[in-house]
Amino acid sequence: MHPQALLEACSDLLRQVLTFEHPADAVVSRFFREHRHLGPRERGTLAETTYTVLRRKLQFERLARSGSGPRERRLAILGFAGVRGFLQGALSAQESDWLDGCNAVQPEEWFEPERHNLPPWLAERLKAQTGADFWPLCDSLLAPAPLDLRVNTLKLKRPAAQDQLAQAAIKSEEAPYSPWGLRVQGKPALNKLALFTDGAIEVQDEGSQLLALLLDAKRGEMVVDFCAGAGGKTLAIGASMRSTGRLYAFDVSAHRLDALKPRLARSGLSNVHPAAIAHERDERIKRLAGKIDRVLVDAPCSGLGTLRRNPDLKWRQSPQALQELAIKQAAILASSARLLKSGGRLVYATCSLLAEENEAIAEAFGAAQPDFTPLPVGELLAQLKVAEPHSLCSGGPDGQRYLRLWPHRHQTDGFFAAVWQRR
Questions:
Q1: Residues forming beta bridges with residue 173, ordered by sequence position
Q2: Which ranges constitute the DSSP H helices of 200-291?
Q3: Hey, which residues are catalytic here?
Q4: Of 168, 190, 247, 388, which has the maximum CB count within 10 A?
Q5: If you ran DSSP here, which 8-state letter would residue 37 be given?
């Protein structure tokens, strides 16, 4: 593709994404469907340019003001993720000089918002929560996330999966915490590998794997994944149950559950029962009240723990949306708790960084539900033989009450989990 045409395509895609009317990944997918002539390398450049601009939006907008021409073209030049020599073929002499000037700006010349590239309301909350860790966290959120895989231990052991990846010239290393996890170098195409098509591996962040591990579902149990979505954790839970017992995958979105079906077919699991529900008080939920051994509530949340993958969320979320989410999170947690039998385990989780979606919800639930005893996550992870379990936790008198994963500390997405046992 000619450099000028590729830069124009980047500009066009950015113009659509920066309206923030829809999630960036959905806009990028639609753009690729409408431009089927684009090759894999061109698609990679387009996607990475878009996400680079979303990550560094405030910084690039300041630089763009000193240039000329359409705003989206200037942003595309600044965030261009392909070969710089290739980009030069698309630039006028004036643009080239302007870009050299932009590249010469020193770190100390940025204002604080341009360094952290966060909206003011979010920067304020994260600074209050993290203190000295604020800038390391911000730096980590400006980098792309690594590619983590979960090995389906129902089909293959982790070392064997690693060997097969190596035979396909894909380097990987064992994930530091999850016993099922592999971290892959680069962004190889996995969907045509036999390992993937046979269901022996799934793409899943290591933090997400730890949530399924923390549920610790056993063979033959009755288990509910309450907000299953596309089913990444459902599949991990089903494999840990060795495809025995009964695992319900509930979600209010039938469309999201549809995405689980091909993954479920590959996985070899026969114990998973996906079901769309109308709301958290659905009749299906009432019929199962008091019968379930374990419930995972991966609640709908702001998703701000996934900013490395979904940087548009920081521009699309708002304090008002957070308040609405908190009401929903509390209602879902209270309803899901009714499912558990005596002695059953409840796990509440989000992929948010913010205390108001995490500790605040867990503490309010604990105060309102005397039948549920909090379990220290640090001890549970130690029992599950997770490496350095205490470094993954926070809260409570000994700092071990909750799972708290951070991109800058653990190289995972930002995750939170609280665990209770029904008396």
A1: 183
A2: 206-215, 232-240, 254-267, 283-287
A3: 351
A4: 247
A5: T
